[in-house]
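Database export, one record per block. Field names are fixed; values are copied verbatim from the stored entry.
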Amino acid sequence: MRIAKTAAVICLSLAAHPAFAQSGNFELELNSSADVPQGCRLTFVATNNTGIALTKTGYEVAAFDASGVVASLLVLEFGELPLNKTRVVQFDLPDFKCADLSRLLVNGQDSCDSADGTHDVCIKQLSASSRISSIPFGL
């Protein structure tokens, strides 16, 4: 009986604190990079936990070279991201070697649209991260 009560208390406390899944965020992760003949291919994982089904998403991103100078401003379009959907998207940085990329910075939101109009959740609730230690990615 005591075990059942303890298990019930644990279950109730877990239900009351759903912090294990980052709800409310638009998660954008720089997942990998690879040199390709055209330049540097970047792979991103985007997850929409904003509570809004998005029909169009995009970010303006600044790419910094090895000297820390902005080498390029890009608009990365992630397209449609339904609620709680995760999508993997690749972008090529033309004429750029991945080893020469020192940092990526989200400069702003280019698009964040739903059937109800334009929103600011894509930037206000953005959580940006990088799995690549040599290429920091953030706001």
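Remark 1: The domain at 22-138 is CATH 2.60.40 (Immunoglobulin-like).
Remark 2: Residues 4-22 have pLDDT under 50 and may be disordered.
End of record.
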